[in-house]
Amino acid sequence: MARYILSRHRITGFLMQTPTRIRTIRRASRRIFVPLVVALVGSLLTPPAGAQETRLFTLSFIAGVGSAADSAHADANNLSLQAAFTAEVDAERLIGVRIGRIGFDSSDVVNDHAGPSLTYATVAGGYRLHEAIYDSGVYLGLGLYRLSGESRPGVVLGYTGEFEINRRWSVLLELSGHYANFRHDQTFAQAMGGLEWHF
User: Fold this and answer.
1) What is the domain partition of the chain in residue ranges?
2) Which residues pair with 122 in a beta bridge?
3) How far apart are alpha carbons 141 and 146 in whole angstroms?
4) Long-range pairs, 159-165, Cβ under 8 A, ≥24
5) CB contact set of 149 (below 8 Å; sequence gap of 6+)
6) Low-confidence ranges of the chain (pLDDT < 70)
7) What distance lies between CA 31 and its chain's CA centroid?
8) First-residue to last-residue Cα distance in the chain
9) Are 117 and 80 in contact (CB under 8 A)?
10) What is the Cα–Cα distance from 162 to 182, expressed in whole angstroms?
11) Which CATH number fits domain 51-198: 2.60.120.200, 2.40.50.140, 1.10.287.3510, 2.40.160.20?
């Protein structure tokens, strides 16, 4: 009988202390769980130190001169413009889309047209080499060229030099040659420079 009374007293005491123990466990779990969640969210929102330096994409805007290289009736000082979007495959390989234009002077005759404009869109793969003070690169690709209402496929070969200003901006110099299957004048050349934005 005494044992029964003692065990009943212990059970009653345990049940009376249960809410207090539950509150204690909840407070302890909050102290552990909340900082753990904050640390996890912070680790997801903050990229690793190496990732902060990664520049996956590049936008560039450059201008310079262009010419129809195999035309005897075109100067070499025609205004040339180009915009490009480039994506990194890895630290050395790139793929880029370029849209550009060469506006020939009214005195220039290209493919039997006086003062035409050559517009193009190209897709090219490239390789970049990290030099001491700049990054050099070469690219090769396919394009679609349009001159005075006539469109032809073609190929492009280019050389680039990138001079870094800071992590986001660089100066870009570019030389490129284009071959398009027009009737007469088929080879075009450009020399341009401008800015790149990395993101």
Assistant:
1) 2-46, 51-198
2) 98, 143
3) 16
4) 160/126, 160/128, 160/136, 161/134, 161/135, 161/136, 161/137, 162/128, 162/134, 162/135, 162/136, 162/137, 162/196, 163/133, 163/134, 164/134, 164/135
5) none
6) 1-54
7) 43
8) 81
9) no
10) 32
11) 2.40.160.20
Nearest to 113 by CA among 161, 183, 181, 171: 183
The amino acid present at 53, given as its one-letter code, is E
User: Per-residue DSSP letters for the chain?
Assistant: -HHHHHHHHHHHHHHHHHHHHHHHHHHHHHHHHHHHHHHHHHHHHS--HHHHT---EEEEEEEEEEEETT-TT--S-EEEEEEEEEEESSSSEEEEEEEEEEE--TT-EETTEES-EEEEEEEEEEEEEE-SSSEEEEEEEEEEEEETTEEEEEEEEEEEEEEESSSSEEEEEEEEEEEE--SS--EEEEEEEEEEEE-
Q: Which two tokens stand for residue 19?
A: 């809410």
Q: What CA–CA distance (Å, rounded) separates 102 from 118?
A: 5
